[in-house]
Amino acid sequence: MDPHDAFLRAYLAIQDDLRAFVRAVLRDRHLADDVLQEVALVLWRRWAEFDPARGEFGAWARGIARTEIMSQRRRQARRLPLLDPEAVDALAGAWDRLGAGDPRLEALERCLTTVPDPQRRLLDLRFADGLDLATVAAQSGRSVEAVGKALQRLRLALADCVRRRLAGTAP
Amino acid sequence: MTTDDLVAAYCDGRLDAAGVAELGRRVARDPAAADALALACWTDGALERVLARAPEIAGATTSARLRAVERRPPRVRRPIRARAWRWWPLALAAALLLAVGGWLLDGRAAPDAPPAPALAEGAGLRLDGAPRASAPVRGGERIAAGDAPVALRADGLSVTLAADGELTVAMIADPLRGTHLRLDRGALDAVVDGARTPLPVLVETPELRVRVTGTRFRVRHGAAGSTVEVSEGRVDAAAADGVWRPVAAGGSAASRAAPAPAAISLDPVRDVALLQAGTPDPARGLAAAAARTGGDGLLRRLVAFEAPQGATLGTLARHPEVEVVVAAGPDVNMVQVVVVLLEDEGDVFRGNLVGTAAVRAGELQAVRITTWQGLGMSVPLAERPARVRAVIVERVQSAAPFAVGRIAVR
């Protein structure tokens, strides 16, 4: 396969997860997208160095993303508190253990169908419409704390549902 | 605070500096805490992806219920002025190719290419020369050369737009689809250093697409059609049939101009379902989408255009531009105009984002989205037997109303 095609295929497979990882650390969508663009360039330049025998492409990409994240960290930290480098490393390790990918995403989609309407509306406001917590709270007539708690419970419930689906124990 | 509480607050942006530091300490020393944070962050990202894409409209049977739209006369392409190219004496051959029409490949000797401009450092695309010396170029920007050629340079990419030429920069170094240039008029020469440009470069005219990863070539577009001549390396080129064919150094390809598609103009009041919460328009088959707004006054998606049954992605792809005029009040943070091609896969529709633009608060402005942005490596629309379903205007970051003044698909 042409190296570029091979790279593109590998990159497209992990791009969404990589973006989620970068955003998890930088906590800013636009900055994360900028960083991701730089990371993509670096990944391509170093594509020849990638050895599948030594690990998954996603983990390798996160390692490279970490370097770029750190260079952006100082700038972003002035606006928003960020995790320490040690925590970022631990998060990257946890991401490797998570096993993100299509099966997990498909499981989440299935689990979403079981979410009752009121909770689903909260998810829509927060994640589809991209509203911050205060706006979601205002629109749903609840306190910020109540919405935060509700979303926390939803995250945990969805995570549990995904885990059971992946384990084959969910209905 | 439990770790779960810290994680949730972190995800929601409610954790102060001390809280982030505490979470960081726990994550660094406790794998279970790191796992919890990774899972929560992944879930948030996945929820955005899953919930923000188009299938919300999937529940609605999108039969063509929108009324027939106004037809406008075909757009008239301006003919290019005749110009003598000392180093490209193949205009006659190209004209002959075009006269035969359709898609032709040959193995003629490569033309003498112009000297390659030096490549500037930096991934960003910059304009080098009149009218703006060394100025950064933004995605969506239209560049017109006057009496003198204009050079565009980026890391690994050098493009010289010939005098009298016009091009639109659709996308610059997009991680997914690379750099897209649309040649609107005239000729351009491009040098692509594949070792320095990781992502593809796509040069497009209405009837020809040229995909490269490292070569030197020239594309010309005029009233009769388009040609590509390859000096070094290899390009892949696709004509209206959408089939990519390799063109090696010394070869060329031509594609004749197809009749311009009729422009489509929509009156938002008359043709568009403004889906205010609680007032869904079942006649347009969008009740499910409207119901999702949940009575909160939040207009999440506005389906502005539904293609006639049987229209293919390639049909909309031939319309190079979607224009939406949007007025946003001062309390609107941002209106995002998104053009989505919804593919019909039985009962499920998959959304393909092909263009997006933002409107700033308090402004009335036209947003133009070039639909061919979606014709990149990763979305070979012409190769997919799917149907165009909708153009979607999406508002984000605000619950306040906005108005759509005009929508046109050209």
Count of beta strands of chain A: 0
Uncertain segments of chain B are 53-123, 260-320, 326-336, 338-407
Structural class of chain B: alpha+beta
The oligomeric state of the chains shown is heterodimer
For the sheet with most strands of chain B, the description reads:
13 strands, mixed
Shape of chain A: globular
Helix content of chain A: over 70%
Kindly report the greatest chain-chain contact and the residue count on each side: A-B, 71 and 59 residues
Query: Which stretches of chain A of 5+ consecutive residues score pLDDT under 50?
Result: none
Molecular structure report:
The complex is a heterodimer of chains A (171) and B (410). Chain A is an all-alpha fold and 171 residues long. Chain A contains 8 helices and no strands. Chain A is globular, with a radius of gyration of 18 Å. Chain B is an alpha+beta fold and 410 residues long. Helix content of chain B is 17%, strand content 37%. Chain B is built from 7 helices and 22 strands. Chain B has helices at 3-11, 17-29, 31-52, 91-100, 268-271, 287-291, 313-317, and strands spanning 70-71, 103-106, 126-128, 135-136, 142-144, 150-154, 157-161, 166-174, 178-192, 201-205, 208-222, 225-238, 244-248, 252-256, 264-266, 301-305, 322-328, 334-345, 348-360, 364-369, 391-396, 402-409. In chain B, the strands form 3 sheets. In chain B, strands 2, 3, 4, 5, 6, 7, 8, 9, 10, 11, 12, 13 and 14 form a 13-stranded mixed β-sheet that branches. A 5-stranded antiparallel β-sheet of chain B has the order 1-15-22-17-20. Chain B has a 4-stranded antiparallel β-sheet with strand order 16-21-18-19, with no helix packed on it. In chain B, helix 1 (3-11) packs across helix 2 (17-29). Mean pLDDT of chain B is 55; it is low at 53-123, 260-320, 326-336 and 338-407. Classes of the chains: A mainly alpha (171), B alpha+beta (410). Chains A and B meet through helix 1, helix 2, helix 4, helix 5 and helix 6 of A and helix 1, helix 2 and helix 3 of B.
